[in-house]
Design a protein that fits this description.
Helix content is 35%, strand content 25%. It is an alpha+beta fold. The strands form 4 sheets. Strands 4-5-10-6-7 form a 5-stranded antiparallel beta sheet. Strands 11-12-13-14 form a 4-stranded antiparallel beta sheet, with helices on both faces. Strands 1-3-2 form a 3-stranded parallel beta sheet, with helices on one face.
């Protein structure tokens, strides 16, 4: 590690003010991604602004047909929430499958969404459910939020305060996980929403993305067979020691079929 300044804040306003004073500052949420990056010197912020004690960023609220989750809500809290399990059980199940127990008890939804790791689970849920990312400055639709590998629509000084998920008619998430870290080598979240079916893929490419061909097929008939023969092109997908781009393309179809089947149960 290296030397840096550390500051605790009590409110979003204080955090935003501190962030605005130092262009090299970073927000610290759960720290599950940032601290690891700092240890490897991949990130070297001059200041860490800790959001851990900002009460207004915590909690889960159900209002009508939507579930709003505060940015500093831990994965374990989402996974165990009776409200989330009732309104969007697929979201609770997704949270329960993130990393290991330590990661789930420290990691936060806001940190995960803001970091936008290409193999993270939450971005798939945000995109597939057509969620809205709420910041201290505005509201951003899921389709406009994720821009690419570790890149989002967040601007300088902008802080995620919550994520609002409209409850779908049905949904499910299936992932082919790395056996050691449990990150998604390929994860597919399928949701039948008020606006029609949505299919979001994580882990396969440089960022989360939708599969329009599968969405169109599911709009005709929401059944596993509708996506079983849809092949996703391997060009542009990730290829590494764990899986080739071609294999990841194959897994997208397999995981999508399983997700649809699970959503119907």
């Amino acid at each position: 590690m290296y030397s840096f300044n550390y500051q605790k804040t009590k409110s979003v306003a204080d955090a935003a003010a501190a962030l605005g004073k130092n262009a090299d500052a970073k927000l610290l949420a759960g720290g599950q991604s940032l601290i690891a990056a700092m240890k490897l010197r991949l990130s070297q912020p001059a200041q860490l602004i800790d959001l851990g004690e900002v009460a207004e960023l915590k909690g889960i609220k159900v209002d009508g047909g939507s579930v709003t989750i505060g940015a500093m809500t831990r994965h374990a809290e989402v996974a165990s929430s009776a409200d989330v399990k009732k309104a969007i059980p697929a979201l609770a199940a997704l949270a329960g499958g993130i990393g290991d127990r330590m990661v789930r008890n420290m990691g936060t939804i806001g940190g995960s969404v803001a970091h936008n790791d290409p193999a993270a689970d939450y971005p798939a849920a945000v995109l597939a459910l057509g969620a809205t990312v709420i910041t201290n400055k505005r509201k951003i639709a899921a389709d406009d939020f994720f821009k690419g590998m570790f890149e989002t629509a967040l601007q300088a000084g902008e802080i995620i305060t919550a994520v609002s998920f409209p409850a779908p008619k049905r949904a499910a998430y299936m992932k082919f996980k790395n056996p050691a870290s449990r990150y998604a080598m390929v994860g597919v979240f399928v949701a039948e929403t008020a606006g029609g079916p949505r299919v979001a893929v994580t882990g396969a490419g440089p960022g989360v993305f939708r599969v329009p061909e599968m969405e169109k097929a599911l709009a005709g008939k929401f059944a596993p067979d509708s996506v079983a023969n849809i092949a996703v092109k391997s060009s542009g997908l990730n290829s590494d020691i764990h899986a080739s781009a071609e294999y990841r393309a194959h897994l997208i179809t397999v995981m999508a079929k399983r997700a649809v089947a699970a959503a119907l149960t």
